[in-house]
Give the backbone structure.
Amino acid sequence: MSEVYAARRTRLREYCNAGGSAAALVSRPANVRYLAGAAPHGAVLLLGKIEDLLVCAGPTADRPPQERPDEALRVQALPGAGGDPAVAAAGLAAGQGADSLAVEEHHLTVARHRALGSVAPGLRLANLGGAVEQLRVVKDEEEISCLRIGAEIADQALGELLESILVGRTERHLALELERRLVDHGADGPAFPTSVATGPNAGRPGHRPTDRRVEEGDFLSVCLGATYRGYRCEIGRTFVIGTAPADWQIELYDLVFAAQRAGRESLVPGAACRDVDRAARQVLDSAGYTEGLTALTGHGVGLEIDEDPQLSPAAMGKLDACVPVTVEPGVHLPGRGGVRIDDTLVVRPEADGGPELLTITTKELLAL
């Protein structure tokens, strides 16, 4: 992987040089990991004029092999406790003869930005912006493989839960059990706090589990994800508990399923991000569910669970091949519940079979 990380750093250096910066300081943890192979707590990456350095608050040799940085990258640990690696890196950049340093202003606090300027007053600070985030949008096959394994783990954890007795158990208990199963099956941990929603809570975006107990006839919506080697995937499904679904539940489920299918089928290289959102949203709009829809149909996933591209009405840009995204439309009816269906897919050209579905748990409306 050393060659992969070196190539990523080279691409960023070319971007910085084109913008007139001789060096760059990367401080956002996911970006550090992307370029250095690991991101020890507080570490920053300096793309220097002479050499690149991973500046850390402490030693990294005692970390597990999978959490150690690129072996071709020199690591410099601060000599004492309490120092700021970013400030130290700015001083090192000046020491290498750089006259300008591109920094991630969207990640730095005002106080930290001022500290960088004070340690090297002759260093001109420029804004690196979201350059690394844009490099991260298109994934290589190794990254997609990590997402694929994470999706398999999430599918397995969810499948096992569906085979257990659910009536009478609380949302909170089911969420904790799912997160335990993720780790049991090899995940680093959950990709985000697991959401389990029952009855009137079902289908509510971002629902945090409560002590409400599962009852017969409830909608049960679950949204979970696994992190594997730092990469995060997402899956969401909705079921009915105990009895055959009511007519209104079948009708609502079929509608959301149709919207989700429309979004999935529009995932082709070159498609405008807003058009993917429109494809799913129009199905729900035409049925009269304009109010209360989520702000976006989906988003990119990778080292973070919510990254570019955004599939929303105002989204700019187009999809490229090898971009993993979620498609997750939903409808929530206050006081009654709702439906959410969420998959992680990879954009692929038609010649390669179209979008690759990573999360394969059935989307049939099951009565559990």
About this structure: Residues 46 and 193 are 32 Å apart (CA to CA). The radius of gyration is 23 Å. The chain has a mean pLDDT of 94.
